[in-house]
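User: tokens in, sequence out, please.
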């Protein structure tokens, strides 16, 4: 069982000079614009309004950092979460898109305390060509990746398991490596934290 102790906004950044200092273990959330990155952070932290969420794609335009304190099985942890702008936001100008892409890739390549990248896929839509490119890119950079299929609530219960199996196959992942999530139904919260703490728990211990 995960017990959330505290969640707080740290800072907003656009370039490495603005990244928050300190040694906190960091997790970043990447995915298509509007896929539900910011909503996932709210759900994971049990806070409705820690991060701004919107129906309009392109809501998050900077890197936003949050510090989370939590407890599991009597141990305390501190994890820093980085909410990133989404990719593939159609309405942005070419120049804006290039600027965001630079902001995101610089962060993903340079941030040395970044331990895990959560790659978020829409469970219903499935991985897009951009999602595949992003996963290949992250793998190429040697990043540890956790793939989470979100908005699973949009599928009737009977279709969820077969859908996950199909997604896992499409992503060439074992089924256990794919976490099903819903921010609206708060599904998968415990599983994501377990996967993250399983990956770096000791390093994040308080
Ligand atoms: N049904 C359902 N809707 C969701 C879920 N997660 C997010 N949404 C909705 O999807 C929309 C986008 O959510 P955000 O969390 O802002 O998405 P984002 O990926 O941060 O978007 P950008 O910041 O624009 O890249 C909002 O209308 C959310 O309410 C979910 O698990 N289920
Ligand atoms: Mg967002």
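Assistant: Sequence out:
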């Amino acid at each position: 069982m995960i017990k959330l102790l505290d969640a707080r906004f740290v800072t907003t950044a656009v370039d490495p000079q603005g990244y928050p200092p300190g040694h906190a273990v960091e997790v970043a959330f990447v995915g298509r614009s509007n896929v539900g990155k910011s909503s996932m952070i709210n759900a994971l932290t049990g806070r409705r309004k820690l991060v701004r969420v919107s129906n309009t794609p392109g809501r998050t335009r900077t890197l936003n950092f949050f510090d989370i304190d939590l407890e599991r099985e009597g141990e305390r942890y501190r994890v820093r979460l980085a909410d990133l702008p989404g990719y593939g936001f159609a309405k942005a100008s070419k120049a804006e898109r290039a600027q965001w892409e630079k902001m995101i890739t610089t962060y993903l390549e340079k941030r040395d305390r970044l331990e895990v990248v959560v790659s978020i896929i829409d469970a219903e839509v499935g991985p897009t060509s951009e999602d595949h490119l992003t996963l290949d890119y992250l793998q190429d950079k040697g990043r540890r990746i956790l793939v989470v299929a979100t908005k699973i609530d949009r599928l009737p219960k009977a279709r969820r398991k077969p859908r996950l199996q199909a997604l896992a196959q499409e992503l060439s992942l074992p089924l256990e490596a794919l976490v099903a999530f819903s921010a609206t139904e708060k599904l998968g919260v415990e599983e994501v934290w377990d996967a993250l703490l399983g990956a770096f728990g000791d390093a994040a211990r308080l």
